[in-house]
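Q: Could you write out the predicted structure for this multi-component system? I'm mainly interested in how the pieces pack against one another.
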Amino acid sequence: MSQAWFKQSVVYQVYPRSFCDSNGDGIGDLRGITAKLDYLQALGVDVVWLSPIYRSPNDDNGYDISDYRDVMAELGTMADFDALLHALHERGLKLVMDLVVNHSSDEHPWFTEACKGRDNPYRNYYIWRSPRDGAEPNNWASAFGGPAWTLHEPTGEYYLHLFSRKQPDLNWENPRLRQEVYALMRFWLDKGVDGFRMDVINMISKAPKLPDAPATLPQRPWQPPGPLVFHGPRLAEFLDEMKREVLSHYDLITVGEAPNATPEHGVQLTDEREGFLNMLFQFEHVDLDIDPAQGLGKWGRKPLELRSLKASMSRWQHALHGRGWNSLYLSNHDQPRPVSRFGDEGAHRVASAKMLATFLHLLQGTPYVYQGEELGMTNVRFGSIDEYRDIETLNLWREAVDERGMAAAQVLDAIHAKGRDNARTPMQWSDGPQAGFTTGTPWIGVNPNYREVNARQALADPDSVFHHYRRLIALRRALPVVVHGRYELLLPEHAQIYAYLRTLGEERLLVVCNFSRATPRCELPADLAFEGQELLIANYPVEAGEDIRAFTLRPYEARAYRLH
Ligand code: GLC
Ligand code: CA
C-alpha cells in the first residue's frame, strides 16, 4: 500500500472564466484566482486544478488550444500565471493543469501549416482522409452534433474532429506529434506545476482504418463512434511512452479523463506498477440517469436508481483496491450540479448537498470538489436559449429545434437538467451585485439564487454546506482509514439508503446516507459486530448514545461513525 501524496489529497477544480473577475471585464481571470486563495485554504483542499488557461479562440472555452505555451489574454499573462503558481506553492498547495492533447484548435499554427498542402510537414499532425463517394469518409458523429469530419476544400481532404470542427484531432500515430506533446508537458513541469488532468486521454488511439460505427441512433445520419475511439489499440503504448519520456521524471499527480472506461480499464491504466496514470475520471456513475432508449444521447433522462449507483461504485471500489486508484467526483464543468441532479435543490438543498458530499468523500479515492459545489450551488434555468453560451448546448438547440422541429419547451427542459452551463454560471461569492463575481457584466448570467447561496453567507454559518465540506476534508487528513480502508457495501438492496463500511486494521468507519426525501428505516446487518460508536460527522443533530443498530433516517440524512 503506497502512501503517495495524491491519495491523501483533495482537489479543487477551478473553471477560470467563472471563478473570479479581477478587472471588471466580466470574465474570471488568473489574478481573480490568486485573490481567492484564502478561501481555498479555509476549505482545506490540497491541490487546485485549473481548466485550460492556454491561448484559445474559445470555441469550447479553452478546450481548443491555439498555443500550448502561452496564457489566454482574457485570463491574464504568463507573469500572472507565475504569480499564481508561486502563491499556491507558498501556501503548500499544488497546481494541476488541464492537458488537452486529443485535439488542438484549428487556429493552432500546426493546423494552419497542415492546411497549406498535402505535403506540408505538419499535415500528418492531424487525421486526414479522402472523401468516400464524394462525402464524409465514415459515419462518425461529433460529440457536439453533426459529422466528425469537415472538408478542407483547398486540399480536397476531410479532417477528423471528434468534438467541434474547430477542434481537429491530433494524430498520435505520428511520433513527431507525440514528441511535441511531451515537450510541452515538460515546459509546464519545468515551471513547477504539479500534475495534469488529461482531457479525453483514452481517445488518442483510434480504431485502425476508422470503420463505420454501428447505427445506435435511429434515423440519424451520424452515429456515435463509441468503442471505435475509446481505449484504442495503441493507447497503452502511447501512455507508456509518455510515462517513460515525461511522467516518470517528476513527482506528479495525473488523472485521465476516460469516458466509457470500465473498472478493467481502470486497473490497466492506474495499476501502481504497470499503469501509467494515478487515476481516471470514469463516467459510469454519471451516466446512470441517461436513458439510451430515447435516442438522445446524454440528453435522454431517467431517474437515478440507487441500486445501480451502488453496484457501479462498488465495482470500481473493489476492482482498484490495492492495485490502482480512483478519483471521486459528482460534478465538474461538464456535469449538472449534483444537488439539483441527485439531491433536492428546494427544501432539502443544504441537507442533500451535505449528504452527497459525505457519501463521496468517505469512499476510497481522491475527491474532487468543483467550484461552488461546496456551497451547494444549483442548476440554472435560463428562460431563453439566447442566455446559453456552451457550444454543446447551442448545437443541440440548432439540431433538435431548428433542424428536427422538436418542441422548444422540451429541449429547454433537457438543457435545464443536463446542459453544461449549469456548472458554468459565475461563482457566487456574496449577495452583492453579480454575486460578487465581477463589477462588470458577466460573460454568462449569474444564477438568481445567489442572494441565499453564496460564499459570504456560507463562511459565516457554521452549519453551512461549506463547513461540512471543510470537516469532511479534515477527517480525511485525520483518519488513515478514509484514505486506505477496504470498502464494503452494506444493505445492497435498499432502495433509499447507501450504507458502507471502510476497514483498516482495527479501524472501522460506517457511513449511512439517505438518498431520498423519505424517512427510511436503517437496520444494520446482524453480523456487523460492534460495541459502541463515535459520531464523526452528520447533517442533522444526533442524540448522543442513540442505538444505531436500527434507526430512522430523516430526509437526505447522512452520518459517519467510527465503530469499536
Ligand atoms: C472534455 C472536457 C470538455 C470538452 C471536451 C473536449 O470532455 O471536459 O469540457 O468539451 O473534453 O475537449
Ligand atoms: Ca477579467
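A: Regarding packing and overall arrangement: The mean pLDDT is 97.
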